[in-house]
Amino acid sequence: MAPEVTAMDNRLMMLKKRFAERTTAQLAELAPKLADWQNGVCHPDDLQDLYHLLHRLAGSSGTFGFHQLGEEASELEQLIKEVIHTVEPAQLLTACQIEPTVLARLSQLSQLLLAAEAHTPTAINWELVEHTGEKTQLLVLDASLAALGEALMTYGFNVRHCESLPQHCTQCWHPASIIITPAALLNQVVAWNQQQAQTQHKAPAPVLCIGQDDSFQARYALAAQGADGLFMQPVEVPKLAKRIEQLKAEQQQHHASKVLLLDDDQELTEHYRLVLTQAGKNVKVMAEPEGLLAVLAEFRPDIVLLDVHMPPYSGVTLARMIRLEPEWLSLPIIYLSSEQDRDLQINALAQGADEFITKPISDEQLIRTVRTLCYRARQLAKLVSCDGLTGLLNHSHIKQALTHEYARVQRLGHHTSIAILDLDHFKQVNDRHGHGVGDVVIKALAQVLQKRLRTTDHLGRYGGEEFVIILPDCKLAQSELLFKDVCHHFSQLSFIGSDGTFHATVSVGLAELNNFSGEEQALNAADDALYQQKQAGRNGVTCYQHPRLGRDANLAQDETD
User: Fold this and answer.
1) Which residues form the Response regulatory domain (predicted)?
2) Options 3.30.70.660, 3.40.190.10, 3.30.70.270, 3.40.50.300; which CATH number does 395-558 get?
3) Do 525 and 516 form a contact (C-beta atoms < 8 A)?
């Protein structure tokens, strides 16, 4: 076990100890009140305090291993809620309305706490929830897919080809694999995949099928067997490469996920923060919601986890308040509460939230749930911000990213490069081979950019065959080397046209954002550099040196050459 995991488990045990100490003190404070209530004296405020205590214990006890305490607190919470809602406060001052049996059960809560002290919470299988940090490997099975494997290598993927059936390829599988197999072998591959995953205590690898039967029955059978994707022969390689990138993102996306957690239970929120942080999330905790809007604007979370009961505030009202701002209408808000009443849950969801997770929830369930919700949130956001053909940022969002990066450069003073890319002779590709083939070329360039550039770079399709790339913390000389590599690898790709295979090239213009008084000036400079590269013979990179000179007229002529 890794040292950092052992340290994490120790910290979680310390939180359990803090929870037990706090609960012991609160139950000790409750004891004299129970004696008063048995004698018929009951103040409404004391009853509200009892309800909030039981609500906290119902939601958090199970997380720290006190399962019986949590279950008993949940039942008692409902009984006390009924008293609060059905009995007038004036009646409570004259005669306690709590049944003697309920008072007796309340007095035994401290015993349930002591009885579970020695219990150790179920350890998290960190191997199942931690990112492996390994480079994704494409495991291409069967001799019939050898050519496909070679084609995928030109996109920069780490490809391993295994000609034998998987049960005879025991060293091929690892946790960051994506398996590509003929559809006919899927049953055997799925069984082997699951066996390897169980042996190594990992999640099974995604499986993509290559097939020839496009019927409903064939697709249904593959889905039932566990396929994650199906591509018909002959395979459109850019389309397959895009799906591989999506699967890679699913495997690795939890590292960039941002989670905002609002809950007034200190030990529980710290427990959740530690667990989610260890699983790769960037977690910000708020116990007091007064600064919520400012935190949203600065932190910009992927999802918000929100308790329903945070006296004196209501989580339901906070969700409605967040939705008052148009900017946050699409922000996923998830209630994380011990509230068991289904009608109340549905009513709470109707006020502006998206899902309801009932506490207690195990650590592994929390990690998997949050991971899924974050991924779903990012996918939905991409539908709004990304170009449908390439999956890169669309025109308006790459311009927005450029504005934000320029402000960041002005504030921090680091070097940022900006690139404009334009496919060479692209009009001829469309005229000769058709717009469908042209779209394949555009998608292929997008795939090469995603593979060859850094995850911190902003990639956008500016329009047609033109792309804009923002490279934060990257000097011009470094950017030039990166794009020379892009040009080289893109030129090696083969495309199937109307009269056989052909190759395409791309020209790049570069400028450094720091050297200009605004982002538009930098963009124009990169455009001038692109023009210079077109004049110099295309298929290469030029850094900005000269002002714009008749670029528009010359480019119009360039497209006809």
Assistant:
1) 258-374
2) 3.30.70.270
3) yes
